[in-house]
Amino acid sequence: MGSLGSAMPTSGTSSPFFRRRSPRLSRTYNFGGVDCASMQPRLYFVGKVLLAVLFTAFCMSALRQTSSLAGPSKFATHERGVTHVLVTGGAGFIGSHAALRLLEDGHRVTILDNLSRGNMGAVEQLQALFPEPGRLQFVYGDLGDSKRVNEIFEQNAIDAVMHFAAIAYVSESMADPLRYYHNITFNTLTVLEAMKTHGVKKLIYSSTCATYGEPEKMPITENTPQVPINPYGKAKKMSEDLIKDFATTADLSVMILRYFNVIGSDPKGRLGEAPRPELRKHARISGACFDAAAGIIPGIQVRGQDYNTSDGTCIRDYIHVTDLVDAHVKALDKAEMGKVSIYNVGTGKGSSVKEFVEACRFATGVNVTVTMLDRRPGDYAEVYSDPSKIQRELNWSAQHLDLRESLADAWRWRKRHPDGYSVAMI
Ligand SMILES: NC(=O)c1ccc[n+]([C@@H]2O[C@H](COP(=O)([O-])OP(=O)(O)OC[C@H]3O[C@@H](n4cnc5c(N)ncnc54)[C@H](O)[C@@H]3O)[C@@H](O)[C@H]2O)c1
């Protein structure tokens, strides 16, 4: 797959260098009762050794020539005007959209992902769009493996890190908290240590409104106290704290972006959201609505219709992934040396679950069935952002404010890829 997958594990047995040799015949000759190993095979052997030496010398000189002609890998050298961004979790939903935008803007991208939740199909799609050498490389690796992470920093001239990689479902985090602290907090520590060792100074970090917990006042500003109520939010807040503490000692340029609920997909239909089927039980509302519209599940269950909101259902702030990615690019551009800046990334507008379902019905053209259930413990009535700080300081504002259009973008991709990235229907 072109320059992709250079670090994907390969099976040693299939390599031509591991072919089994056939057993040699013994070369002894009999002359008049004298059993003598003839001089001929010895000469033959010496000849072969000489040939091997000559051949090795030839190969080495050819190799030296090839590498001097090709020059060192573009990924291993800094280039003026080109930012080489390490995108952790770049095979996932948001990371792949971010990689697309960075590549469109002329940057160099290294995606690091363990494919535990992401899709190689998304990376292949990016590679097909940007096949030129030195634009995009995929490195298979787990952020929990600090040796591997350090190797990647060692072998590549990285200018900035966008750290998306994480597992990210609230309900899963309640069932398996240690996994979340390991995957989110411990792995962020590994990334920071590698950045420190290799002198990489710029970091854009994916945080979440889940770090705020259940704020008393809406809208949520960056100064709203962070009191997370589940392991996912707590692990993300701990990562933020690690980053802030480290930044005070290391002259880092850091942007922490706290996302609200991310929806939509590339409006041109090049990428989409394709969570693994086994994650369906944790599905976010858009995934559940689409599964219902596609007939995979009979309908959706809405929990709670007696909240103190306009129609009794919960209110959330839905941000289109393209707008979110735009915030990352602006953050990358404006990150200041020695400064940690924190921004909410949301629309500033809340939509109720009922409104969301109506928009989903409109976008899919399917009258999705809804079952109303009692409230789910731990759900809060209203969450929406105050995005005025990011508007003021980064000149960013959400452009996709119509839920129906945002969901239509995602549904178009979903309809053409009913099995995610594995099959495309034209
Ligand atoms: N989707 C949302 O609504 C939302 C909201 C707020 C914050 N976020 C944050 O945005 C980031 C991206 O979320 P997403 O929705 O794209 O999730 P995703 O699951 O689609 O992508 C995450 C990617 O990280 C990779 N990954 C996970 N653990 C890894 C590890 N140990 N080593 C290497 N790669 C690993 C996965 O394989 C996957 O490709 C996460 O940090 C998440 O917490 C998402």
TrEMBL record:
Record's keyword annotation contains Isomerase: yes
Ranges for region Disordered: 1-20
SUPFAM superfamilies per record: NAD(P)-binding Rossmann-fold domains
Domain NAD(P)-binding residue range list: 86-399
One GO process term, biological-process aspect: galactose metabolic process
CDD domains assigned to the protein according to its UniProt record, in alphabetical order: UDP_G4E_1_SDR_e (cd05247)
Top-level taxon: Eukaryota
A single GO molecular function term of this UniProt record: UDP-glucose 4-epimerase activity
Keyword list, A-Z: Isomerase, NAD
Cofactor(s) in the UniProt record: NAD(+)
Keyword NAD: yes
Signal peptide feature range: none
Annotated InterPro entries: NAD(P)-bd_dom, NAD(P)-bd_dom_sf, UDP_G4E
Family stated for the protein in its record: Belongs to the NAD(P)-dependent epimerase/dehydratase family.
Protein name: NAD(P)-binding domain-containing protein
Organism: Ceratodon purpureus
Lineage of the species this protein comes from: Eukaryota, Viridiplantae, Streptophyta, Embryophyta, Bryophyta
